[in-house]
Amino acid sequence: MFVSDLSVEQWVGNKDEGTLLENPNWQQIESAICQLNGRTQTLVTLGADEETYMSVGGGEAGKYIVNLTLDGMTFYNLVDRSSSEFIEQLVVGGQLGNYPAKMLTNLQTALLAAKIFAGTGELDESVTWEQDESLAMVG
Hints:
single chain; two-stranded antiparallel sheet; 7-stranded antiparallel beta sheet; globular
């Protein structure tokens, strides 16, 4: 397994009482992602080191956001370019945010991307990734 830790949020009121699990197996990762509900559990992070991690967030109404970085500098979002340009609201990381509809994916796709990353540390080539320009650093 490429990832070395699994961070799972558990919001109680406005406080995150989540857990960090060292050396998770795929069943633990899959279970954590499947428990995302957009209310008390809104973010799962798969970490390899300080600069390499994948986040899966949301979960309400079967809508998820998946993003990752391999170097802590360049971030990628899983996108569906055939989707509309509407903005949708989703709770990720305990915060309500506005996201382009193309950034929302279903559980099956989120799990597939997470399984590839967790096992190999690579981007799943069967889905579309887009560099997140809003997080680009100005040099």
